[in-house]
Structure formats: C-alpha cells, structure tokens
Amino acid sequence: MLAYHKTTEAERSVISDWKYEGEYTLYNKASYEEDKRTGRGFANPKNNFFSFVDGEELVGFTNLVEEEKEVFVGIGANPAYCNQGYGQRMLRLTCELSKSLYPDKPLYLEVRTWNKRAVRCYEKAGFRIDGEPFQETTPIGEGVFYRMVKE
Q1: Burial class of residue 139 in the structure, from the number of CB atoms within 10 Å of its CB (0-12 exposed, 13-18 middle, 19+ buried)
Q2: Which of 60, 77, 89, 145 is 20 to 30 A from 26 in CA distance terms?
Q3: Residue extents of the structural domains in the chain
Q4: Mean pLDDT in each 10-residue stretch from start to end of the chain (151 residues)?
Q5: Which CATH superfamily is domain 2-150 in?
C-alpha cells in the first residue's frame, strides 16, 4: 500500500543518487552533499518534500511549494519503478496532501513538452495544460515547458 511521510535526511541522499537513462538523464541530480553546499534542491528551505513508500520500497517523492495564490508541485519516481502506475497514485496522494495543507490554493506544475510520459500521467490525474508552451532556464538547463493546473 502506498503511503507518504516527510522526506528524511537519508532519503534525500538516496533520491539524489537515483540515475535515469536515455532522454531522462537530464533528471539525474547532484549529490545531496552538493545540494547542502549550494542550498538548492533537497536543501532549499522553501521546499516541502514528502517520500512515497510501498511497503519498505522508496518509490518516489513530491515537493509542495506554497506560493501566494497557488501551490507548485514537483514529483519524481524512483527509476526502478517508472511505468508501473506509481505516478498516478503519487499524484492522487499529493493532491490530497496539498488540499489538507493548503485548502484554498490550486496546484500547478511545469513539465518539459518532450516528456510525453509525464504529460499523460498528469492529464490522467486531472491536470490540464494551461496556456502556450514557454521557454525557461532551470538549474538543470533550458527547456520548453507546459504549465499544467489542477483546480
């Protein structure tokens, strides 16, 4: 059964070491030690991380960042568990969690337009593309993104 809890220090380190293949290598992170040194990623105090576990297995995480009028959501799956339906389940729990923490604020996320797998997952979870694609530079590089919202 999928459950979540605040991400622990040990899990932050494990997640930072996950390695994706193919076009998804873009999502390979710096080490947690590097995050702590720079104050980014898992060490950024504005981030609010939760881990998803299925039994004893760490299958993914989510990040909820409260903003003035809405909540930004980031989500990541353990590469060993991609394409196994966890994305949908993690997003459902993320939406429930956000509703309990920030009851009056809608969720939004940003996803690279080429990441069709993620876009399909988000759409199945009730998110919709909001507006035209846009160019953005992130800590992992430049890209073209969709903004997706769930009200």
Answers
A1: exposed
A2: 89
A3: 2-150
A4: 96 95 89 92 93 97 97 96 92 96 96 95 95 91 94 70
A5: Gcn5-related N-acetyltransferase (GNAT) (3.40.630.30)
